[in-house]
Design goal:
The complex is a heterotrimer of chains A (240), B (43) and C (221). Chain A has seven helices and no strands. With 240 residues, chain A is mostly helical. The chains are: A mainly alpha (240), B mainly alpha (43), C mainly alpha (221).
């Protein structure tokens, strides 16, 4: 089995720079969204949650799609760096999905009077959150690095493939009971801070995933390194 | 319920605050992990 | 194809020989139906509305036991490695087992149906439709269930891992099967049950091939 991909200090430095850019963009986008942009007519100040909720939604989808690609790449190429990236991406995906559900609940309470309104997108996110937490649990419960990598890739591929079907069935199930919730049209004064915040969050998660996958590489290096004793003994003993 | 929602800043702060807190906490966790690993390598 | 038939026959035979265990799983499912009714209370009207839903929840929970069991003998005797060494294609092993699990889960559903009827008192004219939904829905549980059971059986926490991995995946099956079953039992003025059945069919159409393709990765050494 090939050895683990090397730890790269350069990648870490690049990631920290990206993180700085991301935080700056987020600060700008959120400042404008919170204090400069006008409140929405019907939803008032609560609608400002959009500047954190929509960027989180876009980026959660991106991260999970990236995780899917890493899983496919690992199954196809058998290169450990994809497993390291997968580990990082799944963790980040769980984080953003969790935040999405929390933000959605905080938005729903003043708007609809309930913490959860079974919005199809948010409900699908909740299902995906559970699915990817399960993949994290799988990774924790499997000690053999190769099995861990293969199995979490398989689980990721299947979970990602289920997203459209889950979304569609929830939307259909929900449509029998209520009108669609979140508004789609966005005033132009609101689009710019939204995009800035979304871009900022993109830089942030790319930085986090890079750093996290470096940590994963380091651990893989420890796990895959042959113990010094055994190699010498096997070499001395020869084939059986 | 009337058509217009009034007030609600506490919800806005809650949403932004939790998001920022979680992201910062995760960043710190990564920083600690990287630093610990660096010491281990340099030993 | 012959390998699939042989694998199917083997798993059905093993299931038959272990039918005491299978009956225990059915009793577990029946108990669940009873306990769920306690969560609602003795209101006949409410129970009638919820019968279809609870049937599927009970079936889903009981299925994790059945699916875990389907890999127990293989795991204990390292039988899958033997099959692979003989040159059997992993997909054949998968489809044989998934088909057998489908049969087991369908029978499990049929056993739970009268229990649900007794406790939740639905009208009986839609029962044929419910049997059809049971067939389609258990197929939807079986394919991803067999894949993840094969995976989980090789870990040290399979009892928790299988449900954790499987349940989010089969949410569409649960939603569609519950809707279709409830429509059959409670009345379907707009003829929607067929559409939900089609959704189940679509789910099966996606996941039976996909899981078969990926199973090889799960059991390779």
């Amino acid at each position: 089995m090939e050895t683990a991909p090397a730890f790269s200090p350069k990648a870490v430095r690049g990631a920290i720079a990206a993180l700085g850019v991301g935080v700056l963009l987020l600060a700008i986008g959120w400042y404008v969204g919170l204090f400069v942009a006008p409140p929405e007519h019907y939803m008032g100040e609560v609608q400002r949650i959009m500047y954190v909720h929509v960027p989180t939604a876009w980026n959660a989808m991106l991260v999970l799609s990236f995780a899917f690609l890493c899983a496919l790449a690992f199954l196809w190429k058998n290169d450990w760096k994809w497993d390291a990236r997968l580990e990082a991406a799944v963790e980040m995906g769980v984080l953003l999905s969790f935040l999405l559900c929390v933000q959605g609940a905080i938005w729903a309470k003043p708007t609809w009077g309930v913490w959860w309104d079974w919005d199809p997108r948010l409900t699908t996110t909740a299902v995906m959150l559970v699915a990817f937490v399960g993949i994290l649990a799988l990774r924790h419960l499997v000690d053999d690095p190769r099995k861990r990598a293969v199995w979490s890739s398989v689980a990721t591929v299947i979970s990602y493939a289920s997203v459209p079907i889950v979304y569609f069935s929830v939307r259909w199930w929900n449509s029998l009971h209520q009108v669609q919730s979140t508004p789609q049209t966005v005033d132009s004064a609101m689009v710019t801070p939204l995009r800035i915040a979304a871009l900022g969050m993109l830089f942030v998660w790319i930085a986090f995933v890079t750093l996290r996958s470096q940590l994963a590489r380091r651990r893989l290096a420890q796990e895959l390194a042959p113990p010094p004793f055994t190699t010498a003994t096997v070499a001395a003993g020869g084939e059986g | 319920m009337t058509g217009i929602v009034t007030g609600g800043w506490e919800f806005v702060w809650a949403a932004y605050g939790i998001t920022a807190a979680v992201l910062v906490a995760y960043g710190l966790r990564l920083a600690v992990g990287l630093r610990k690993g660096k010491e281990h390598d340099e030993r | 194809m012959r390998a699939v038939a042989a694998a199917f026959y083997k798993d059905v035979l093993l299931g038959w020989r272990g039918r005491a265990q299978g009956m225990a799983v059915a009793v577990f499912g029946a108990t669940l139906l009873l306990l769920l009714s306690f969560a609602v209370g003795p209101n006949a009207q409410t129970l009638r509305q919820l019968g279809g839903g609870f049937l599927w929840v009970a079936l889903l929970f009981a299925s994790t036991l059945a699916l875990t069991e389907s890999f127990r003998l293989e795991r204990e005797n390292r039988a899958i490695e033997g099959l692979l060494l003989l040159g059997v294609h992993p997909a054949a092993i998968f489809y044989g087992k998934a088909l057998a699990n489908w049969l087991h889960l369908f029978v499990l559903g049929l056993l739970l149906l009268p229990v649900m009827v007794v406790l939740y008192d639905p009208a009986l004219d839609g029962i044929a439709g419910v049997v059809g939904v049971l067939a389609l829905g258990t197929a939807g549980l079986s394919a991803p269930g067999t894949l993840h059971a094969g995976l989980a059986s090789q870990t040290r926490a399979q009892q928790v891992l299988l449900p954790l991995l499987l349940f989010p995946l089969v949410v569409p099956v649960l939603i569609a099967a519950v809707r279709a079953t409830s429509l059959c039992l409670l009345g379907d003025p707009m003829g929607q049950a067929r559409s939900w059945a089609l959704l189940l069919l679509a789910f099966d159409g996606v996941f039976w091939p996909l899981c078969g393709l990926l199973f090889g990765h799960v059991i390779e050494e």
